[in-house]
Design brief:
Oligomer: single chain
Number of domains: 3
CATH class of the largest domain: Alpha Beta
CATH topology of the largest domain: Beta-Lactamase
Number of strands: 13
Bound molecules: adenosine-5'-triphosphate, magnesium ion
Radius of gyration: 34 Å
Largest sheet: 6 strands, antiparallel
Number of helices: 12
Structural class: alpha+beta
Order of helices and strands: HHEEHEHHEHEEHHEHHEEHEEHEE
């Protein structure tokens, strides 16, 4: 065939493959086309494409053309048996005699399949061999330079297609996880709102009647103590229900111009007794670069009370809580860190603590962090955590600092 005719065939095949790579999100469709086109344009017997599975260290079959099922069932192939130093240095390797080359793992079967010669094209991305395009020929023959150029360019396209498919797969997996998480949270929120609503009224009745009864019971009666417990525990339930309703209502913050530091100070002063009882040393370091911005003072105070109370619970007896504020170099955001040297959070719990009702405490409702997370988000901010078991925990609130 005259050389210009051949180049035209190569060019057409190449363009067809490029089109599919750009328009399709399905890697298998692209790879099927590649093995078919490479077989056709190089007048080969067939071709197959194996991609390296990083977990098993084996080349697994991803697409094949022109080979019998019996031959294909011979894989997967180990990495060591195929990839020698030659492959890392070269963009292609020609195996002239399938019966004598150690890189052919099943020489006898290959010969029976009618294969005499093999052209290997390693698929390289980011300097690693991630796959192999193997083209099989029914007889030994010399290759022309433009044939090899075409095959190498095709292998590069192939590597790009696999890379793109992997990226799409990763993004899809991340998206699915996020969607599941959001759905779970909103279902929990709906359920919480329903339960809270139903329980609120009977609870008010229990509280009213038990308070009335308690007033009628003389102080020295043995019933008095039990009655006080009923009242106390019912009040506790009411607080939990209120928190729940607050959480489910997801109310918009009522923002006004305010300084963050007095809000933190108010939360600290509410908990001073708690800190004294647990012998907690509280240290503050406030940045002078923070200016007033639009905040809902009540909501943010609630966030700091939640974080500080959690820190105190984590310390139990004697420790340090540090509150630090700082701004980013551009002055666009402020960071408020609440750090304790308490028990820390085990890694397996780190992604659960912001979920409503997750609590490791005997009397915890598991709503403190869920509510705080919602409030910070409503301020267009972020609430993140870093923790090491037995060393301590640091919660960071990031808030935008536009005036
Ligand atoms: N500073 C901290 N150190 C260690 N663990 C923490 C810390 N803050 C939160 N946690 C963990 O996260 C869980 C959830 O916290 P969250 O404030 O949402 O609920 P809670 O404190 O258990 O109950 P409550 O609703 O009464 O606040 C806690 O039970 C605890 O296991
Ligand atoms: Mg809490």
């Amino acid at each position: 065939m005259p050389s210009s005719g051949k180049i035209e065939i190569f060019y057409t095949a190449f363009r067809e493959i490029s089109n599919v790579i750009h328009s399709s999100t399905r890697a298998d469709e692209v790879l099927e086309l590649i093995v078919w086109k490479v077989t056709e344009t190089l007048a080969a017997k067939g071709a197959l494409l194996r991609i390296l599975n990083l977990e098993t260290e084996r080349f697994e079959l991803n697409a094949a053309y022109g080979l019998s099922d019996a031959y294909l069932s011979k894989g997967p192939v180990t990495r060591q048996s195929i990839i020698t130093e030659v492959y890392k240095q070269k963009s292609y390797v020609i195996i002239e005699d399938v019966l004598k080359d150690p890189r052919i793992q099943y020489p006898r079967e290959a010969y029976q399949e009618g294969i005499r010669m093999v052209l290997d094209l390693p698929l390289v991305f980011r300097d690693n061999i991630a796959g192999l395009l193997r083209v099989y020929f029914p007889e030994s023959r010399p290759f022309e330079e433009d044939e090899l150029d075409f095959a190498v360019a095709l292998a590069q396209q192939c590597a790009c297609a696999i890379d793109k498919a992997r990226l799409i797969e990763e993004q899809q997996a991340r998206y699915n996880q996020l969607a599941l998480h959001t759905e779970k949270l909103s279902a929990l929120g709906r359920m919480a709102a329903g339960i809270a609503h139903e329980i609120n009224n009977p609870l008010a009745g229990v509280l009213l009647y038990s308070s009335n009864l308690s007033k009628k019971i003389p102080d020295d009666s043995p019933l008095k103590e039990g009655m006080e417990i009923i009242i106390r525990e019912t009040q506790r339930c009411k607080i939990i229900i209120q928190e729940l309703l607050e959480f489910a209502r997801d109310r918009e913050p009522k923002k006004a111009k305010a300084d963050i530091h007095p809000i933190i100070d108010r939360a600290v002063s509410m908990l001073e007794n708690e800190f004294r009882l647990r012998r907690i040393d509280l240290q503050k370091s406030y940045s002078k670069k923070i200016h007033t911005c639009m905040l809902d003072e009540n909501q943010l105070q609630q966030v700091f009370v939640n974080l500080l109370l959690n820190a105190a619970h984590a310390i139990d007896q004697q420790g340090t809580i540090e509150i630090r504020t700082r701004v980013d170099p551009a002055g666009h955001r402020m960071f408020i860190e609440v750090q304790d040297d308490g028990c820390g959070i085990p890694p397996e719990n780190l992604n659960k603590i912001f979920e409503p009702f997750f609590s490791t405490k005997k009397n915890g409702s598991g709503l403190g962090l869920a509510v705080s997370y919602g409030i910070v988000q409503n301020h267009r901010g972020e609430l993140t955590v870093e923790s090491q078991p037995d060393k301590g925990t640091c919660f960071t609130i990031t808030l935008p600092m536009r005036q």
